[in-house]
Amino acid sequence: MRLRRQTPAAAVPTRTLSFGTRVRRDWQMLVMMLPGVLFLLLFFYIPILGNVVAFQDFQPFLGISQSAFVGMENFVSLYDDPLFWAALTNTLKLAAVQLLLFFPVPLILALAVDSLVSNRLRRMFQTVVYLPHFLSWVLVIALFQQSLGGAGFVNNLLRDWGFGEVPFMTNPDTFPLLATAQLVWKDAGWAMIIFLAALASVDVALYEAAAADGAGRWRRMWHITLPALRTVIVLLLILRIGDILSVGFEQFILQRDSVGPGAAEVLDTFTYYSGVVGGDWSSGAAAGLAKGVVGALLLWGANSVAHRLGEPGIFQKREAA
Amino acid sequence: MTATSDLTSTRRWLGTSRRKVFGASQRPVWKEQPNAFYQLVKAVLLGGFALAIIVPLLVVVSTSLASDQDVIDAGGYVLWPKHPTFHAYELLFSGGLVGRAILVSLFVTVVGTALALFTTITLAYATSRPVVFGRPVLLLVLFTLLFAPGIIPMFLMVKQLGLLDSLWSLILPGALSAFNFVVMRAFFMNVPQELIESARIDGASDFTILWRIVMPLSKAVIAVVGLFYAVGFWNAFFNALLYINDTAKWPLQLILRTYVLQGSSLSADQLGVDPPPQTQSLQMAVVVLALIPIAMVYPFIQRHFAKGVITGAVKG
Questions:
Q1: Transmembrane stretches, by residue range (chain A) (predicted)?
Q2: A26, A137, A281 ranked by CB distance to B132: nearest
């Protein structure tokens, strides 16, 4: 102890300070953490505990503490509920179509934009395509309805030209395509940003060397550009997979009426309608909980597959931060 | 090679030019000459995508500004108003449901953004420094990225707090987003340690350091995160659907859904005017009103996007 006291205060490594000293030293920082931590408790961690209603026969007038525990019964009844399975099937179907048809679009756009020679054009294009990301789903669907709906201007034109009406917005069979089109319209431009940034950091000397060796534009794209984007592509894929079960909640709840629950009912809307609207709180919570757990597992699974393939994935990056 | 020099060289071979030289002199020698076919494909792809975004917006704005006669002549939609008028907007602002909804949305957006920025900045700053409990708190936040509590437990919590049918139910649950937190914290980590230490030696408290030194250095990121929050609050639809029953407290997004998507018409009563108005341009005017605030801030913050998003995406 005596020895340590002789060293100058600044040279003492933080770790040797006692806990009490550190709390006293950092009290202002602790005060700063307070609002955020309070928020996390109130609107994240306590609600997570609230998921116990999934294991209860929850009665709103009795509250969580008084309602009877029923174990896994709610999950069993979900298992027997054809509506739940329909919602699950729809979710997976919509997610698959969106993954397949949405995911490549930003990449293709980014490659096309990146090869533009004129910077003015680049900037103009980017300004336009970022915008829809900031519009709400209500607005996006309103715009789609005004454009493609039965009374929308595209159908007005089609009628004028004598083609008759096309029910773009209300046909349950083509709904996955419509939903993907909406997603592309809203977010493809935005998703492009990350690819563009990755493209901008590729060393030009690589292209030059490849060209000197006789590689044409497609070869350069295949052997330089795409490998450079690999990490980013994997990262975005993982995030997307973690999100698979929560495909655009607002998007579907807004269109459930016009397309019908047969095509637009997803796990989240099922939870909402059976729980909040139908008053069957427990089975709604059970569906929601199942969804959350499976989503987290998917994310974790996709990430560990990425690790196996030698990609950094998401979690490692976070530790480095 | 550093990131900046990468960028400049990239710009160079892409042909950055204020001199409007798009020709061969701007292209690296090893690049192929432009090929008419690929150029056509690119023009169709990019031009088509941009038009698909612009045209619907243009039609909506034009129709909202068109006179009733224009709308009837065009059979519902106008690409360019021949007799522009603000009649629809005057009707909407003459009082009643829509005017109130705009006030509600503005209130929620302004108060919510201020509160969310406060929570995010303080938490992000505190966890960006080696501080007691800094690490566990950081993990608490990051865990929220993986898992969501679910709709029903959230509803029960808001109900338990007595916030149903209160505007606070739209504000408080959005007062911190882990994504924005990550962006903010990544930025604070890059503030030089020496700056903070020298301020501390001069006797500044942690609050002073944050307020007088760190925040002025972080204006760009605060602007971007603020915009993300503001857009989120302005666009929030589902929370309102869940927690707000009283039509007097409806935000604009619920009005949009009820009167534009579901096609109920705004009655003369709800508008506080006598003759029933022409609905088409009225509906479009509601759409435009929901659009305006975003279109207004968008150009100012746009140039900061790339940076903010990339930090968030890579580290988040």
A1: 29-48, 95-117, 129-148, 188-207, 228-249
A2: A26
